[in-house]
Amino acid sequence: MSIKKQFLKSKPVCKVTFSLTGEEAANVEKVQLVGDFNGWNVEEAIDLKKFKNGSFKTTIDLETEKEYQFKYLFDGVKWENDAEADKYVNNGVSADDNFVVAL
Questions:
Q1: Could you give the 3-state DSSP secondary structure of residue 1?
Q2: Are 35 and 69 in contact (CB under 8 A)?
Q3: In the structure, what pLDDT confidence band is assigned to residue 57 with cuts at 50, 70 and 90?
């Protein structure tokens, strides 16, 4: 898993790329990104593009100087964490942590 950040000089926005290798997403047909930026609404989940090598990737614009909690949703049923997240916070619902990208 990988998170890459590209800060824009012209406005307070960061282009954040979320990606998973084919090995990390083995046997997965669809990966979606869900988090603070879409109100944790699965109906508004951001689809990651699947490539021929089995990897997945998407880039979204996020406002800087904020932190965003997120998780991946595999095939609409399995929640996955990101080992490359900037930090982890308790989600307040279960014993699981949400993963955070800090900008």
A1: coil
A2: yes
A3: very high
**Can you tell me whether residue 75 is helix, strand or coil?**
coil
3-state secondary structure of 85: coil
**Both structure tokens of 22:** 């084919």
Amino acid sitting at position 57: K
As a whole number of angstroms, the distance between CA 7 and CA 2 comes to 16
Distances in Å between the alpha carbon of 72 and those of 26, 46, 78?
14, 9, 8
Condensed to tens digits (0 to 9), the pLDDT of residues 4-33 reads 999 999 999 999 999 999 999 999 999 999
What mean pLDDT is predicted for residues 26-44? 94
